[in-house]
Specification:
globular, Aspartate Aminotransferase, domain 2, about 15% strand, alpha/beta, 15 strands, 2 domains, binds pyridoxal-5'-phosphate
Length: about 425
Amino acid sequence: MTTNADIAALRAQAVPRGVPATAPVYVAGARNAIITDVEGREYIDFAAGIGVMNVGHSHPKVVAAAKEQAEQYSHMCFGLFGYESYVKLAEKLNQHAPGDFAKRTFFMNSGAEAVENAVKIARYATGRKAIIAFEDAFHGRTYMTLSLTSQVSPYKVGFGPYASEVYRIPYAYCYRCPLAMSYPSCACACAELLEQAFAKQVNAEEVAAVIAEPVQGEGGFIVPPPEYMGKIKAMCEKHGILLIGDEIQTGMGRTGKWFAMEHWGVAPDIMTTAKALGAGFPISGITGKQEIMDAVHPSGVGTTYGGNPFGTRAGLAVFDIIESEGLLARASVIGERIRARFKEMQKTYPVIGDVRGIGAMAAMELVEDPETKKPAGDFAKAFRTKLYQNGVVNIGAGTYHNVIRILVPLTIEDETLARGLDIMEETMSQVSTI
Ligand SMILES: Cc1ncc(COP(=O)(O)O)c(C=O)c1O
């Protein structure tokens, strides 16, 4: 039998250290919310491949679509020879994306590529160059997207220089309010920082787009107040600026709606999707207002693999599964259950400074002291390591690496979810006594 240690030893010889390695375990198989390693040990999946496996691992409908596709053809390059599943998935996204207007969609392979293309289109359609992003934002690791990404370590350290014409304002991070105010008495004053940026940083008439995650993901599951995104959108409209909604982590039912912008009643001009769209088959989408998307000349955008038939078939299966299994409602139930449990734990463990999230995005922010809110990054690391050892696959988040975020498959069974939460509580008690 090949052991985890065997593969880890080979990895050390074959893979550079810059590639993340959270735990020394290697997968043999996965079904729904259970992952089995090469030594036969089972883990509960509280990470879903970073929000990719919303419909669970190896869902029969996704497996059937992929098998059938493999028998038919595996690659064409949509630009050379088209196929129906690409067009149908584009239509699905156009129908489900927020906004009562005509839309168009095309596909890439990864989230970063979707964001790259959204920026290209926004610049092309507006004839403007500047892009405004947010503090604590994450948009990817290619050069443009890394320029838009906020977090310095580990993403940006040593990789500069970055793209020009990127400006940044604080996000509505209420737990660490950039204006040291509290909601709702603040009246969401932080949204005005966008207008201030037009005076202090960049002429509004030179701004092509503001790019925003409707709920920040890597930043630590930061949920803005309900009116925040609407205010940002209104300011964009006033100045002829496009709003790019990055739904790569929040989309495809994760927050209890198809797309998280729906919670805020906001229809972005361009929306990016990836992750859960393909249930593990690499695909990302760029969906936008018809006149913006059609501004680009023929062959102005494209790629070899973008919207490959495995991704588009899987995407259609994902839409079907979310609809037929009622996963939007399920996402809300799951999220409430997790947050309720975390709030209970918070009574015993003051290290849990904040419990937050929306739908099945749930997180706890760990602090050394609830008053000072000093980030407990070391504690979070110890907790996450122990959690792996105790059998729960997990991911961190947050600029200060002190957030534990939960992204379970939306198909997780009640019993598995409860067991995972029990293990989290048990782990908290173990680590707290260290
Ligand atoms: C909001 C958001 N945008 C973009 C990306 C980049 O996606 P990818 O890793 O597929 O390039 C991510 C990935 O975590 C993300 O969460």
